[in-house]
Amino acid sequence: MQISNEDYKQFKPLLFSLGYRLLGSVIETEDIMQETFLKAFEINEQNIDNKKAYLCKMMTNRCLDVLKSARYKREQYVGPWNPEPLLLEKLHTFDPSEKMIQNEGLSIAYLRMMEHLTPDERAVLLLREVFDFPYSEIANIIEKKDENCRKIFSRAKQKISFVEGESLNYEKNKSMINRFIVAFQMQNMDALLELISENVTLYSDGGGKVNAAVRPIVSLPNVLALLFGILKKAPEDSYFEIKNVNGQPAIIIYMNGTLQSILSFYICDNKINEIYITMNPDKLPIL
């Protein structure tokens, strides 16, 4: 297959977006993306008229192989698993025209729910809902019949129905996060009760590399107790910024001069319903 430099520039954002959504890992996605392009350069078939579909098929199948072999690794993971945060401000390789590909189905809440899907369900849902592939092309990519793909899509949608109400309005959510920060710093319980769901759940991902809760923290009192405990132990030189992570505002926390953690949020019905703290150093971007 003749892959030009222009093809590489054109399809790289698409393949990265697809792979990252499937795997939740930047490093694994970049490795598989490079493997896909290298393999495509070696293919001699001249009758491939849809390079986009063919490259997506190669990328998807490689990601599915990883997913089907990664279940054991997930089971051995210490504590809750959060997707690797994607700091969009660092991605200079993306053209502005790819904004839709960057943001739809990219939130931490959405990607975390993808863990409840089988690899095939994950692939069909993304290809159909995020990338708008017709069922005929999806069937060719994952090598199943159209009818099967429709059933897989329906089943996947039912499994992740809770994120349907997720607020993705960046500026509105940023305002809410700022109010959360002020209320938290002032320990204004009335304001926190207004902002956070009583049934909030916090997922702390340390991966066994740093000290973190090994089980999800459930309910507002327990979550606030943990957060206030972290604040109390924070060194004096700690500071934070709000940055665009996975298309949504997130709190980037620095301690002792280095990036210590990233707090992302699932906001629905004007309430913070879930909080994701990623502290595993292997998952934190180099700033």
UniProtKB/TrEMBL annotation:
InterPro entries: ECF_Sigma-70_Domain, NTF2-like_dom_sf, RNA_pol_sigma-70_dom, RNA_pol_sigma-70_ECF, RNA_pol_sigma70_r2, RNA_pol_sigma70_r4_t2, RNA_pol_sigma_r2, RNA_pol_sigma_r3/r4-like. This is RNA polymerase sigma-70 factor. One of its GO terms (biological process) is DNA-templated transcription initiation. The lineage of its organism: Bacteria, Bacillati, Bacillota, Bacilli, Bacillales. It comes from the Bacteria. Residues 8-71 form the RNA polymerase sigma-70 region domain. It comes from Metabacillus litoralis. One of its GO terms (molecular function) is sigma factor activity. Interacts transiently with the RNA polymerase catalytic core formed by RpoA, RpoB, RpoC and RpoZ (2 alpha, 1 beta, 1 beta' and 1 omega subunit) to form the RNA polymerase holoenzyme that can initiate transcription. Residues 109-160 form the RNA polymerase sigma factor 70 region 4 type domain.
